[in-house]
Amino acid sequence: MESVLTATQSTATTSHEKIRTFIGPSVSYEEMRENIETLRRSCSSHHTTQLILRLKEIVPDYNPSSHLLRRAFGEKSLREESKAQAIMAAR
To answer: Is 31 a member of any domain?
Structure first.
């Protein structure tokens, strides 16, 4: 069994020995829908940095890998560099 609970969450027993009920703060349907829509837009627009930051806001215990962070911030740097080069070329 894998545990994905944070320090503020726990489970309670049920009548079945292998089934437990989640106990902890919950998210409203509307808030979850908004979060999913924000993540969808970030994915659709290929904004890896924005996606990672939003995931971290939604899931505070989320810690992206070093590989993903390098990729995300590398992409941002490359985009900024490309924009700067385009501006300089237009002058």
So the answer is: yes
